[in-house]
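Consider the tokenized backbone below.
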């Protein structure tokens, strides 16, 4: 029967590791299956083995749905990151998210305006009425407005005056609950 010191060595560092992990990895009182043959320990079976795409196919010759979707899963589960910079490297200031500034317009009353999604995509197959509906502007919800306010700095929240502003009548809120 082999001892624990034969497997792990006699140094104090190894014995400290053994003392910490022994209840989980190797019982000290009972002889282990490794010690019976006094040979090298067999390699443990891997928990996961990588397989190629062709190996997961069913016997009929048609690829299964799972095997065809599995390579796509990391790209499907990964969300786009538009992170907010709380403290910039140069001046230590908070920075606005540029995609918010480009896609949305903030009215002075605190509401945010956006275009409908898909107003620039595949216009060749949309009818004229649908294209007109997609060009309309939409007000964001209360939670979206709060989120967009957090993603921009005070520069984008102050009132701006433009000559012939088409949104001038919408900047002040009248009879509108938010």
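A designed sequence for it:
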């Amino acid at each position: 029967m082999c001892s624990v010191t034969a497997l792990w060595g006699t140094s104090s560092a190894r014995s400290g590791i053994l003392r910490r992990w022994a209840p989980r990895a190797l019982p000290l009182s009972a002889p282990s299956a490794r010690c019976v043959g006094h040979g090298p320990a067999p390699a443990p079976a891997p928990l996961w083995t990588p397989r190629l795409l062709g190996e997961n196919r069913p016997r009929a010759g048609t690829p299964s749905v799972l095997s065809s979707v599995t390579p796509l899963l990391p790209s499907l589960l990964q969300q786009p990151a538009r992170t907010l910079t709380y403290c910039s490297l140069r001046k230590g200031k908070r920075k606005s998210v540029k995609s918010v500034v480009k896609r949305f317009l903030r009215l002075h009353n605190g509401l945010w305006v956006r275009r409908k999604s898909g107003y620039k995509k595949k216009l060749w197959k949309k009818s004229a009425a649908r294209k007109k509906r997609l060009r309309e502007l939409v007000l964001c919800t209360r939670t979206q407005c709060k989120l967009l306010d957090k993603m921009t700095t005070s520069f984008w929240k102050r009132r701006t005056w433009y000559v012939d502003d088409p949104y001038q009548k919408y900047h002040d809120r009248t009879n509108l609950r938010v």
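The chain is about 30% helix and 5% strand.
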